[in-house]
Write a structure and sequence with these properties.
It is a single chain. The protein is of the alpha/beta class and 249 residues long. Helix content is 41%, strand content 14%. It has one domain: NAD(P)-binding Rossmann-like Domain (Rossmann fold, 3-Layer(aba) Sandwich). The protein has helices at residues 16-26, 40-52, 67-80, 109-137, 164-183, 212-223, 238-241, and strands at 6-10, 31-37, 58-61, 86-89, 140-145, 189-194, 234-235. The longest helix is centred in the middle third of the chain and has 29 residues, at 109-137. The model has no long low-confidence stretch (mean pLDDT 96).
Protein backbone atom coordinates (compact mmCIF):
# COMPACT_ATOMS: atom_id res chain seq x y z
CA UNK A 1 0.00 0.00 0.00
CA UNK A 2 1.37 3.45 -0.85
CA UNK A 3 0.07 6.87 0.01
CA UNK A 4 0.77 10.49 -0.85
CA UNK A 5 -0.39 11.45 2.61
CA UNK A 6 1.96 12.01 5.55
CA UNK A 7 2.41 8.74 7.42
CA UNK A 8 1.99 9.00 11.21
CA UNK A 9 3.14 6.25 13.56
CA UNK A 10 1.79 6.30 17.11
CA UNK A 11 3.24 3.88 19.64
CA UNK A 12 0.95 2.15 22.14
CA UNK A 13 -2.13 3.40 20.33
CA UNK A 14 -4.86 0.76 20.55
CA UNK A 15 -6.33 2.52 23.62
CA UNK A 16 -5.93 5.52 25.92
CA UNK A 17 -4.21 8.71 24.86
CA UNK A 18 -2.47 7.02 21.93
CA UNK A 19 -5.81 6.05 20.42
CA UNK A 20 -7.22 9.55 20.95
CA UNK A 21 -4.18 11.04 19.18
CA UNK A 22 -4.56 8.47 16.36
CA UNK A 23 -8.27 9.22 16.02
CA UNK A 24 -7.69 12.98 15.72
CA UNK A 25 -4.79 12.68 13.25
CA UNK A 26 -6.61 10.08 11.12
CA UNK A 27 -9.42 12.57 10.53
CA UNK A 28 -7.04 15.02 8.87
CA UNK A 29 -7.13 14.67 5.07
CA UNK A 30 -3.36 14.79 4.54
CA UNK A 31 -2.39 12.23 7.21
CA UNK A 32 -2.47 8.41 7.13
CA UNK A 33 -2.24 6.83 10.57
CA UNK A 34 -0.62 3.57 11.63
CA UNK A 35 -1.75 2.42 15.06
CA UNK A 36 0.45 -0.06 16.90
CA UNK A 37 0.28 -2.33 19.93
CA UNK A 38 2.41 -4.89 21.72
CA UNK A 39 -0.21 -7.57 21.00
CA UNK A 40 -1.15 -7.63 17.30
CA UNK A 41 -4.76 -8.56 18.08
CA UNK A 42 -5.20 -5.41 20.21
CA UNK A 43 -4.53 -2.97 17.37
CA UNK A 44 -6.43 -5.18 14.90
CA UNK A 45 -9.52 -4.94 17.12
CA UNK A 46 -9.09 -1.15 17.39
CA UNK A 47 -8.62 -0.86 13.61
CA UNK A 48 -11.98 -2.60 13.13
CA UNK A 49 -13.64 -0.39 15.75
CA UNK A 50 -12.38 2.76 14.01
CA UNK A 51 -13.46 1.38 10.63
CA UNK A 52 -17.00 0.97 11.98
CA UNK A 53 -16.86 4.70 12.84
CA UNK A 54 -15.73 5.50 9.28
CA UNK A 55 -12.10 6.13 10.27
CA UNK A 56 -9.53 4.21 8.17
CA UNK A 57 -6.12 3.39 9.66
CA UNK A 58 -3.49 0.68 9.25
CA UNK A 59 -2.16 -1.33 12.18
CA UNK A 60 0.92 -3.34 13.10
CA UNK A 61 2.53 -5.05 16.09
CA UNK A 62 5.18 -2.93 17.83
CA UNK A 63 6.83 -3.39 21.20
CA UNK A 64 9.18 -0.46 21.68
CA UNK A 65 11.17 -2.32 24.34
CA UNK A 66 12.00 -5.13 21.89
CA UNK A 67 14.68 -4.25 19.31
CA UNK A 68 13.58 -7.09 17.00
CA UNK A 69 9.97 -5.93 17.06
CA UNK A 70 11.09 -2.40 16.10
CA UNK A 71 13.24 -3.82 13.27
CA UNK A 72 10.31 -5.92 11.98
CA UNK A 73 8.01 -2.90 12.19
CA UNK A 74 10.44 -0.66 10.30
CA UNK A 75 10.95 -3.30 7.57
CA UNK A 76 7.18 -3.50 7.14
CA UNK A 77 6.62 0.27 7.16
CA UNK A 78 9.46 0.78 4.71
CA UNK A 79 8.12 -1.77 2.24
CA UNK A 80 4.48 -0.73 2.66
CA UNK A 81 4.94 3.06 2.71
CA UNK A 82 8.63 3.97 2.40
CA UNK A 83 8.10 6.92 4.72
CA UNK A 84 7.37 8.04 8.25
CA UNK A 85 6.57 11.74 8.58
CA UNK A 86 5.13 11.88 12.09
CA UNK A 87 6.14 9.84 15.15
CA UNK A 88 4.28 10.06 18.44
CA UNK A 89 6.19 8.32 21.22
CA UNK A 90 3.14 7.63 23.37
CA UNK A 91 3.85 4.10 24.67
CA UNK A 92 4.53 4.28 28.37
CA UNK A 93 4.23 2.56 31.72
CA UNK A 94 3.92 3.83 35.24
CA UNK A 95 4.62 1.79 38.34
CA UNK A 96 3.60 4.65 40.64
CA UNK A 97 1.22 2.42 42.60
CA UNK A 98 3.95 0.02 43.78
CA UNK A 99 4.69 0.50 47.52
CA UNK A 100 8.40 0.63 46.71
CA UNK A 101 7.71 3.59 44.42
CA UNK A 102 6.36 5.66 47.35
CA UNK A 103 9.84 7.05 47.92
CA UNK A 104 13.10 7.40 46.01
CA UNK A 105 14.68 5.78 49.08
CA UNK A 106 12.88 2.48 48.42
CA UNK A 107 12.70 2.50 44.60
CA UNK A 108 13.92 -0.80 43.20
CA UNK A 109 16.56 -0.84 40.48
CA UNK A 110 14.52 -3.47 38.54
CA UNK A 111 11.45 -1.21 38.47
CA UNK A 112 13.59 1.73 37.41
CA UNK A 113 15.21 -0.25 34.60
CA UNK A 114 11.91 -1.75 33.38
CA UNK A 115 10.36 1.73 33.24
CA UNK A 116 13.35 3.30 31.47
CA UNK A 117 13.37 0.43 28.96
CA UNK A 118 9.96 1.49 27.65
CA UNK A 119 9.48 5.19 28.48
CA UNK A 120 12.99 6.38 27.59
CA UNK A 121 15.03 3.83 25.65
CA UNK A 122 11.99 2.61 23.69
CA UNK A 123 11.28 6.17 22.55
CA UNK A 124 14.94 6.68 21.61
CA UNK A 125 14.93 3.42 19.65
CA UNK A 126 11.93 4.67 17.66
CA UNK A 127 13.58 8.06 17.02
CA UNK A 128 16.77 6.40 15.80
CA UNK A 129 14.71 4.17 13.51
CA UNK A 130 12.54 6.86 11.89
CA UNK A 131 14.80 9.93 11.75
CA UNK A 132 16.87 8.60 8.79
CA UNK A 133 13.60 8.24 6.82
CA UNK A 134 12.58 11.76 7.83
CA UNK A 135 15.99 13.10 6.81
CA UNK A 136 15.58 11.53 3.35
CA UNK A 137 12.38 13.52 2.81
CA UNK A 138 13.46 16.64 4.70
CA UNK A 139 10.36 16.58 6.88
CA UNK A 140 9.45 15.19 10.30
CA UNK A 141 7.42 15.87 13.41
CA UNK A 142 8.21 13.93 16.59
CA UNK A 143 6.07 14.22 19.71
CA UNK A 144 7.29 12.71 22.96
CA UNK A 145 4.49 12.15 25.47
CA UNK A 146 5.97 13.27 28.76
CA UNK A 147 4.47 14.64 31.97
CA UNK A 148 4.74 17.80 34.02
CA UNK A 149 5.77 15.43 36.85
CA UNK A 150 9.13 15.35 35.00
CA UNK A 151 9.69 19.10 35.19
CA UNK A 152 12.86 19.34 37.31
CA UNK A 153 11.87 22.82 38.43
CA UNK A 154 8.49 21.56 39.67
CA UNK A 155 9.67 18.39 41.45
CA UNK A 156 10.68 20.17 44.69
CA UNK A 157 7.22 21.81 44.94
CA UNK A 158 4.97 19.06 43.60
CA UNK A 159 5.93 15.74 45.02
CA UNK A 160 2.76 13.66 44.78
CA UNK A 161 2.79 10.90 43.69
CA UNK A 162 6.52 10.36 44.22
CA UNK A 163 6.71 7.77 41.37
CA UNK A 164 10.53 7.95 41.15
CA UNK A 165 10.92 5.48 38.26
CA UNK A 166 8.20 7.15 36.22
CA UNK A 167 9.42 10.69 36.86
CA UNK A 168 13.07 9.86 36.20
CA UNK A 169 12.24 7.95 33.00
CA UNK A 170 10.31 10.96 31.69
CA UNK A 171 13.12 13.36 32.72
CA UNK A 172 15.28 11.10 30.54
CA UNK A 173 12.72 11.34 27.73
CA UNK A 174 12.84 15.15 27.99
CA UNK A 175 16.64 15.09 27.89
CA UNK A 176 16.40 12.99 24.74
CA UNK A 177 14.08 15.61 23.22
CA UNK A 178 16.59 18.37 23.96
CA UNK A 179 19.55 16.39 22.63
CA UNK A 180 17.81 15.33 19.43
CA UNK A 181 16.59 18.90 18.89
CA UNK A 182 20.22 20.02 19.04
CA UNK A 183 21.24 17.35 16.50
CA UNK A 184 18.34 18.31 14.25
CA UNK A 185 18.80 22.08 14.54
CA UNK A 186 18.23 23.90 11.23
CA UNK A 187 16.33 20.94 9.75
CA UNK A 188 12.60 20.56 9.15
CA UNK A 189 12.41 17.69 11.65
CA UNK A 190 10.76 19.24 14.71
CA UNK A 191 10.89 17.30 17.97
CA UNK A 192 9.08 18.36 21.14
CA UNK A 193 7.89 16.91 24.47
CA UNK A 194 4.51 17.62 26.00
CA UNK A 195 2.46 16.92 29.08
CA UNK A 196 -1.12 15.80 28.38
CA UNK A 197 -2.25 16.64 31.92
CA UNK A 198 -3.94 14.19 34.23
CA UNK A 199 -6.14 12.25 31.82
CA UNK A 200 -8.80 9.54 32.19
CA UNK A 201 -7.12 6.35 30.93
CA UNK A 202 -6.13 3.01 32.43
CA UNK A 203 -2.99 4.78 33.67
CA UNK A 204 -4.62 8.03 34.76
CA UNK A 205 -7.69 6.44 36.39
CA UNK A 206 -11.32 7.62 36.57
CA UNK A 207 -10.68 10.62 38.85
CA UNK A 208 -8.57 12.40 36.26
CA UNK A 209 -10.10 15.72 35.12
CA UNK A 210 -9.25 15.49 31.40
CA UNK A 211 -10.81 13.35 28.69
CA UNK A 212 -8.48 11.57 26.25
CA UNK A 213 -9.58 14.02 23.54
CA UNK A 214 -8.43 16.91 25.73
CA UNK A 215 -5.18 15.11 26.59
CA UNK A 216 -4.53 14.49 22.89
CA UNK A 217 -4.98 18.12 21.86
CA UNK A 218 -1.38 19.28 22.37
CA UNK A 219 0.00 16.13 20.70
CA UNK A 220 -2.04 16.87 17.59
CA UNK A 221 -0.87 20.49 17.65
CA UNK A 222 2.80 19.42 17.86
CA UNK A 223 2.39 16.61 15.29
CA UNK A 224 1.10 19.09 12.72
CA UNK A 225 3.35 22.10 13.41
CA UNK A 226 3.95 24.28 10.36
CA UNK A 227 7.51 24.51 9.02
CA UNK A 228 9.78 26.77 11.06
CA UNK A 229 7.89 26.17 14.32
CA UNK A 230 9.08 25.18 17.78
CA UNK A 231 11.98 22.76 18.16
CA UNK A 232 13.09 21.13 21.44
CA UNK A 233 10.29 22.48 23.64
CA UNK A 234 8.39 21.02 26.59
CA UNK A 235 4.73 22.00 26.28
CA UNK A 236 1.94 22.01 28.84
CA UNK A 237 -1.54 20.75 28.02
CA UNK A 238 -3.18 23.45 25.91
CA UNK A 239 -6.60 22.96 27.53
CA UNK A 240 -5.32 24.22 30.88
CA UNK A 241 -3.72 27.36 29.48
CA UNK A 242 -5.91 28.08 26.46
CA UNK A 243 -2.97 27.77 24.06
CA UNK A 244 0.57 26.47 23.59
CA UNK A 245 2.60 27.13 26.75
CA UNK A 246 6.19 26.02 27.31
CA UNK A 247 6.91 24.33 30.65
CA UNK A 248 10.20 24.69 32.53
CA UNK A 249 12.42 21.62 32.05
N1 LIG B 1 -3.05 9.37 31.73
C1 LIG B 1 -2.36 10.37 32.26
O1 LIG B 1 -2.84 11.06 33.19
C2 LIG B 1 -1.01 10.72 31.74
C3 LIG B 1 -0.41 11.90 32.21
C4 LIG B 1 0.85 12.24 31.73
C5 LIG B 1 1.46 11.46 30.77
N2 LIG B 1 0.85 10.31 30.33
C6 LIG B 1 1.55 9.51 29.32
O2 LIG B 1 0.69 9.25 28.26
C7 LIG B 1 1.10 8.07 27.56
C8 LIG B 1 -0.12 7.17 27.32
O3 LIG B 1 -0.62 6.75 28.56
P1 LIG B 1 -2.15 6.47 28.86
O4 LIG B 1 -2.55 7.36 29.97
O5 LIG B 1 -2.93 6.45 27.60
O6 LIG B 1 -2.04 5.01 29.51
P2 LIG B 1 -2.52 3.55 29.00
O7 LIG B 1 -3.95 3.58 28.64
O8 LIG B 1 -2.02 2.64 30.04
O9 LIG B 1 -1.69 3.37 27.65
C9 LIG B 1 -0.33 3.07 27.62
C10 LIG B 1 -0.07 2.42 26.30
O10 LIG B 1 1.35 2.14 26.18
C11 LIG B 1 1.46 0.80 25.71
N3 LIG B 1 2.76 0.21 26.01
C12 LIG B 1 3.30 -0.07 27.21
N4 LIG B 1 4.49 -0.66 27.05
C13 LIG B 1 4.71 -0.75 25.72
C14 LIG B 1 5.74 -1.26 24.91
N5 LIG B 1 6.83 -1.84 25.45
N6 LIG B 1 5.64 -1.17 23.56
C15 LIG B 1 4.55 -0.61 23.01
N7 LIG B 1 3.52 -0.14 23.72
C16 LIG B 1 3.61 -0.20 25.05
C17 LIG B 1 0.33 0.07 26.39
O11 LIG B 1 0.11 -1.19 25.81
P3 LIG B 1 -0.28 -2.49 26.70
O12 LIG B 1 -1.73 -2.34 27.01
O13 LIG B 1 0.05 -3.62 25.82
O14 LIG B 1 0.58 -2.42 27.94
C18 LIG B 1 -0.79 1.07 26.15
O15 LIG B 1 -1.29 0.96 24.85
C19 LIG B 1 2.18 7.43 28.45
O16 LIG B 1 3.45 7.71 27.92
C20 LIG B 1 2.00 8.14 29.79
O17 LIG B 1 3.18 8.19 30.54
C21 LIG B 1 -0.37 9.93 30.79
Amino acid sequence: MTTNRKVAVITGSYKGLGLAIARELAQQDDIWVIITSRKETDCQATEQKLKAEGIEVDCHQLDVSDAESVTRFMEWVNSAYGRVDILVNNAGVSNADLPTEASILTAKAETMLDTFKINTVGALRMCQAVIPLMQQRGYGRIVNVSTEMASLQQIPQDFYPPAPSYRMSKVGLNAMTAMLAKELKDTNILINSYSPGWTKTDMGGDDAPYTVKEGAETAVYLATLPDGSSQGGFFAEMRKFGGAVVLPW
